[in-house]
TrEMBL record:
HP domain boundaries: 1146-1209
Protein name: Supervillin, putative
MF terms in GO: actin filament binding; phosphatidylinositol-4,5-bisphosphate binding
Biased composition (Polar residues): 45-55, 72-87, 234-260
GO biological process, one term: actin filament severing
Pfam families noted in UniProt: VHP
Annotated organism of origin: Pediculus humanus subsp. corporis (Body louse)
Disordered, as annotated region: 21-94, 200-289
Record-linked SUPFAM superfamilies: Actin depolymerizing proteins (SSF55753), VHP, Villin headpiece domain (SSF47050)
Gene Ontology CC terms, in alphabetical order: actin cytoskeleton; cytoplasm
Feature: compositional bias, Low complexity: 21-37
UniProt feature, compositional bias: Basic residues: 219-233
Length: 1209
């Protein structure tokens, strides 16, 4: 018991917390009683032989002093291990510095836990004290019973063990309190934010928040003082003089054409010469006219001026009475008998004589006379209108004929490329800084490398180059805004930029080393010299501080008046009034914005006043930042650094700053970025015009009728005919005109071929003319003549003929895999090479017209890859398929050397360039003319030994083989004898080779119609096994419907829904299902009309999932995995062949169960806008409680409500 009490007293005594001290004082009585009991007990222990365990009195006093007078340890209580260590830690007199540091660290990690547990358990300790006193009294009652050494030791050890276990557990709990954070992944805010990207998981690595005033979290708005600015140079003395409405027009120093009606020197036009300008300026200023005085002397001198007394007497007339009688010779009856005087009643009091009043004024000495010439101009106009009435010419034409131009006052010069005029809204080199988080600020900064940091985005515009620097730690908004601004500059040619592409430098950029070096050279630095990024909070705080520096003025009577609504804030577009002149001062950018209705004199005054304000310099001492120097204090430069006052003010603005004049509707992207709500029309969601007619009618037309199959079968596709310069060339050999009975013979004089390599071209040697590559583009010049002959009456060709002039035509041949740059370069070079200005024709691989094929007389071969490519082929064997039905139109296309590429209805050529062997493989159903055509092409290869094949052997051998009896060399070349890889016809002797027909079924015009495709390889006299290509199907607008009539059956090919048209799947899917029903009905009727009394062999296939029998109807086929994935997601299966008849029955089902209509996806062919139509009448009445006729008569809103309640909406 003594140990327990002493321990509690020690724990309370060592507590330095104020709260624990107060609590210990509240129990002072208990503590004092307990001390007295401890003294008594210690005395008893001494008498009982426990002197060895008792400390001397000096040590007791020393411990009491160290405990500060509070409860102390019992002298019989031993130290715990932790306490002893702490006591030894206090004694550091003999320890080294390293030992002291280790002890201090250990105390800092553990002692606070002890203090915390002791403070929180103070209530329990006091209760223990009370119980200890009670037990102590019980023990003191029995004086004869003294506790033994063993009992005390056991109690001490048990209590020590419990206390150590409890402290150890508390320590582990506190240590594991934050341990869960290490076992989970960091949040998205840490992983994907700028702060997480910069500093990773530990917060200790975050650099201190910059101590700049601009980054103060508790900041106030600091804007420049708003004060009016009045011009000191403008002379306003003339403003008090009289002026006329046409002063501004007459003061215009630029002479205009006198052919413009309604103006000018003669009343018709404006000024036409410098002399007229001077005269009009003189008239506009006015003449000084003195005001004469009204005294007798002035009056006498005015009337007597230039008159002598002799002249007056000489010209004097004498009048007598007779003269007066003649004047008054009037009958007396005509005179008034009585005279009546009437006094007029005046409403106003009579005033003095105005002449006398004017003479009495002494302030009028002279006045300015202004001559406007309005009367003369009006007279001229009237005369011109009278002349126009008697003439057939217009007024403008008459004015032009009467004009006299003087071009000496006008100098027309073409500006040099890159010329920047005064007050232009851009510079030759501009560095735009994109920074912010809410409303990103795009500001012009000094184009130096020191201003670039990794935390922001920068745009460098330099003439024909535009660079977009994306900082490593730039936020998402800055990256997006920087990309949009760069694209806007590139597309619109803004800021004087003529670049053809954007060079992006940064993490996502693909700039080359030379481009990166050029970027830094323009900024006067070296690669990778950018500064480090600053604190992540810098973006938002910098943005708000920079907005505070915005200044907006309005020109009012030659004075710039601040606009208080937008002073120190982001301007809005509502401030731009067409009748006002506004001044926007953004520090490094100074704009004079002029409305479209502002007159020229006001514009001139605004520029003068604005220029004076610009020359005053800048003063941002009242602001947190200066927009001209703020970029140099960002990033690592802004940490623990204040902006000096010298950087906030200056007498002159730097030369890289921008002073610009901007007219309304001609704003640059840099100016528009300063506004909060500038409209971006590229993001406006416009209403789709699709199905506009159906929306207008209120319903979607899905009732399509099947096509007329008789017209489809009887439709005749015209034979290919090339028309150049209004002349029919047919297939390039001859053409007979049935209407005129004239025959045209086409003779080829010369064929020249150029190979296009990016933006260069080189002429192909004559030996290689006809050798093409699918990844290249070529330009072909055809020099030909046309000889025309007629027919005799007997029908025989006439002996008379006429040979026409030399003609030239240019073909631009583009390979299937040719890059876009090569295609564009080929088109441009075709125009450049066309010196004869002949017709130009684009030719795509696989769609060559017969006239083009006849240029090479069966020598045309399309190789894989690029010309002069050093890529090594996969093997020595190369496979070519033959197309063209005549020897002169033969063409070989290279395909992968595989069994999968074989077709039983044509012939192939396998060529080994190392051994010189050529194997001609004929399919089981290959036609005789096809065999002759491929043998002709192979003989040309043997004869010419083209360099494109790179033959190693000088001797070439040709061997023919038939399908089913191939040699081992052939099987090894194609990879085995697995004939399941292609649709073989070895076991199908009834198969007949015919020319397939392909129909495109569509309802784009509003009516379901067919359009039969014409193939350039089509020949009437012989069957064409492969007239169409895969691109005919996949290049159409999707989802498309094609009907293929082939010898293997009738196939209905269905396209896919493009991911870009997912939003149109509502009404679009309904329309497509209606087209499918009409197409299936057409296919069945087509088969019945063509094959009567025979079961229908009409099949349905989906794009990307075509079976082998369908793909073998084309010369070569490439699997489209992207399309297959779309149709598989819609529930289609690969290689599935569906019967059109079965599919049509399910598509035209009239009724469906209610549960099937309530689930999604809906069955094919169901219109989702009218699901109630697929319910049986009995089910309809049970569901809605009324008949269908009553439901139809209900308003639409009631129908909609009932359908929603029934789950059919």
């Amino acid at each position: 018991m003594i140990f327990q009490v002493g321990s509690v007293g020690r724990s309370v005594g060592r507590n330095n917390n104020a709260s624990s001290i107060v609590k210990s004082q509240s129990h002072s009585a208990v503590s004092s009683a307990f001390r007295s009991s401890l003294k008594t007990d210690s005395t008893k222990c001494k008498t009982s032989g426990f002197n060895g365990t008792v400390e001397n009195q000096d040590e007791t006093d020393e411990s009491r002093a160290r405990m500060g007078g509070s409860l102390r340890r019992s002298t019989t209580q031993p130290f715990k291990s932790t306490e002893s260590s702490s006591n030894t830690d206090d004694d550091m007199s003999g320890a080294t510095i390293q030992e002291r540091l280790a002890r201090l660290k250990r105390n800092g990690e553990l002692n606070w836990q002890k203090r915390k547990s002791q403070i929180t358990n103070i209530e329990n300790e006091l209760s223990v004290i009370t119980s200890g006193n009670y037990l102590f009294k019980e023990n003191s009652l029995s004086k004869n019973e003294i506790p033994s050494r063993s009992i005390c030791r056991k109690e001490k050890e048990g209590t020590d063990l419990k206390s150590s276990i409890l402290a150890d557990r508390l320590g582990k709990l506190d240590a594991a309190k934050d341990g869960w954070k290490k076992r989970i992944q960091p949040s998205d805010a840490v992983r994907f934010s700028v702060e997480g990207k910069m500093f990773g998981k530990t917060d200790s690595q975050i650099p201190p928040r910059p101590s700049l005033s601009i980054l103060s979290t508790q900041r106030t708005k600091r804007s420049p003082k708003a004060a009016k600015f009045k011009s000191k140079k403008c002379n306003n003395s003339l403003k008090s003089m009289p002026s006329s409405p046409c002063n501004e027009q007459l003061s215009n120093p630029i002479s205009r054409s006198v052919s413009a009606p309604g103006s000018g020197k003669d009343g018709l036009l404006s000024l036409s010469s410098s002399s007229s300008v001077a005269e009009d300026e003189k008239d506009a200023k006015g003449l000084k006219v003195s005001v004469p005085k009204t005294d007798d002397e002035t009056f006498t001198s005015f009337f007597n001026g230039g008159l002598s007394s002799e002249k007056i007497l000489r010209e004097r007339l004498e009048i007598n009475d007779e003269d007066l009688d003649l004047v008054t010779n009037i009958n007396s009856s005509q005179l008034l008998v009585q005279k009546k005087n009437i006094k007029m009643q005046r409403r106003r009091v009579t005033v003095r004589n105005p002449l006398k009043s004017l003479a009495a004024r002494l302030d009028l000495q002279e006045y300015t006379e202004v001559k406007t010439g309005v009367a003369q101009k009006e007279l001229k106009r009237i005369k011109l209108e009278k002349a126009a009435k008697n003439s057939t010419l217009a007024i403008e034409a008459l004015a032009g004929l009467a004009s006299q131009e003087d071009f000496t006052a006008i100098t027309l010069k073409k500006p040099m490329e890159g010329t920047i005029f005064p007050d232009s809204p851009y510079k030759s080199l501009m560095l735009l800084h994109v920074k912010g988080r809410r409303h990103v600020q795009t500001r012009l900064i000094e184009p130096i490398a020191e201003n670039v940091n990794t935390g922001d985005c920068f745009i460098l515009v330099s003439g024909n180059k535009i660079f977009h620097y994306v900082g490593k730690y730039a936020n998402v908004i800055e990256r997006s805004r920087g990309s949009e601004i760069s694209s806007n500059i590139l597309q619109n040619g803004d800021l004087g930029c003529t670049a053809d592409s954007i060079i992006t430098i940064g993490e996502s950029g693909k700039a080359t080393t030379e481009q990166i070096k050029e970027f830094w050279n323009l900024l006067g630095g070296k690669p990778d010299c950018e500064r480090k990024a600053g604190n992540p909070d810098e973006d938002e705080l910098f943005e708000s501080c920079l907005v505070d520096t915005n200044m907006v003025y309005e020109l009012i009577n030659d004075e710039l008046v601040p606009n208080e609504n937008y002073w120190g804030s982001i301007p809005k577009i509502e401030i731009l009034d067409p009748n006002k002149v506004l001044i926007f001062d953004f520090g490094s950018e100074f704009y004079v914005w002029m409305g479209k209705n502002v007159g020229p004199s006001v514009r001139k005054t605004a520029l003068k006043v604005a220029k004076e304000l610009w020359e005053e310099g800048f003063d941002y001492l009242d602001c947190a930042v200066c927009p001209l120097t703020a970029a140099s204090f960002l990033g690592e430069n802004g940490v623990n650094r204040e902006i000096p006052d010298s950087a906030k003010a200056g007498p002159v603005r730097p030369s890289w700053a921008l002073f610009a004049k901007i007219t309304q509707n001609m704003e640059t992207v840099l100016f528009r970025e300063k506004f909060l709500d500038w409209p971006d029309y590229s993001r406006v969601i416009q209403k789709s015009k699709k199905n506009e007619e159906s929306e207008h009618n209120g319903s979607l037309n899905t009732d399509f009728k099947a096509c007329d199959v008789k017209d489809m079968i009887e439709n005749v596709v015209p034979e290919p005919d090339l028309i150049l310069e209004n002349s029919h060339l047919g297939r390039g050999i001859r053409f007979f005109d049935e209407e005129t009975r004239r025959c045209s013979e086409i003779s080829t004089r010369e064929v020249t071929v150029w190979h296009i390599n990016e933006y260069e071209y080189s002429e192909v040697p004559s030996k290689s003319v006809g050798q093409f590559h699918e990844e290249d583009s070529y330009v072909i010049r055809w020099h030909y003549t046309i000889t025309i002959t007629g027919r005799e009456l007997s029908g025989q060709p006439s002996k008379h003929f006429t040979t026409g002039r030399d003609r030239y035509a240019y073909f631009c041949w583009q390979g299937a895999n040719s890059p876009v740059n090569d295609k564009g370069a080929a088109a441009c070079l075709t125009v450049e090479l066309d010196k004869e200005h002949g017709p130009q024709i684009q030719v795509v691989q696989g769609f060559e017209p017969p006239a083009f094929l006849n240029l090479f007389q069966g020598k045309m071969i399309v190789h894989g890859g690029r010309r002069f490519s050093e890529e090594v082929s996969t093997g020595p064997w190369r496979m070519f398929i033959c197309r063209g039905e005549t020897e002169s139109e033969a063409v070989l296309f290279e395909v992968p050397c595989s069994m999968r590429q074989l077709r039983s209805v044509t012939s192939f050529a396998l060529i080994n360039n190392s051994t010189g062997k050529i194997i001609v493989w004929h399919g089981w159903k290959s036609c005789e003319h096809t065999k002759r055509v491929i043998l002709h092409a192979v003989n040309e290869i043997q004869k010419n030994m083209y360099d494109e094949f790179k033959f190693e052997s000088s001797k070439i051998t040709i061997r023919e083989e038939m399908e089913g009896s191939e040699s081992r060399d052939f099987l090894n070349a194609v990879g085995g004898d697995n004939r399941k890889l292609y649709f073989s016809l070895l076991d199908n002797d009834d198969f007949e080779v015919k020319t397939p027909r392909l129909f495109h079924l569509t309802s784009v015009s509003g009516e379901f119609q067919f359009n039969e495709l014409a193939s350039p390889y089509l020949t009437k006299n012989v069957p064409t096994p492969f007239p169409f290509l895969q691109s005919d199907l996949y290049s159409a607008s999707q989802p498309a419907l094609f009907l293929l009539d082939s010898p293997s059956g009738l196939w209905l090919w269905q396209g896919w829904w493009d991911n870009n048209t997912e939003s149109d799947r509502g009404t679009g899917n309904v329309r497509f299902q209606a087209e499918r029903r009409a197409a299936m009905t057409t296919a069945l009727a087509y088969w019945d009309h063509k094959n009567k009394n025979s079961p229908p062999e009409v099949y349905l296939v989906w794009a990307g999932l075509e079976p082998l029998v369908f793909t073998n109807q084309f010369p070569f086929w490439t699997n489209r995995d992207d399309v297959a994935e779309i149709n598989i997601q819609d529930g289609k299966k690969p290689g599935e062949i569906l019967s059109v008849k079965t599919e049509l029955e399910s598509l035209t089902q009239s009724y469906y169960p209610l549960s099937q209509l309530q689930n999604r996806p809906l069955p094919d062919g169901v219109n989702p806008t009218s699901l109630e139509d697929y319910l049986k009448p009995q089910c309809f009445q049970e569901l809605f409680g009324l008949e269908k006729e009553e439901f139809i008569r209900m308003p639409s809103w009631k129908k909609k409500k009932l359908k929603q309640e029934a789950g059919l909406f």
